[in-house]
# Entry
Amino acid sequence: MTEPRMKFPRFICEVDKVTECYHCYKAGDKFEFKDFTHPPEHFCGGAYHQLFPVMYAWTFGAQFPFMDKEGWVRTTCPDGGKLVFKTKAVWEEEK
# Structure
């Protein structure tokens, strides 16, 4: 008999603000991560490296004092803050 697998959240990531972006992301662009280990195809590697620690921590129960009331956490791209993402964890309801 196999052990049940741990349930991971999926993540919604949205471009909140942008002044310049090598990947031409625009404010309002949305991306969905199946879990913290699988970024969407062709997602910016630099941005993923900034988002990964937040998504990883959320997966294992972390809470952040800097989350807004709706559960979003904002992170900046490593390009000097020219792009700001807002991200939230989405836990699926048990069926």
Q: What stands out?
A: Helices lie at 45-59.
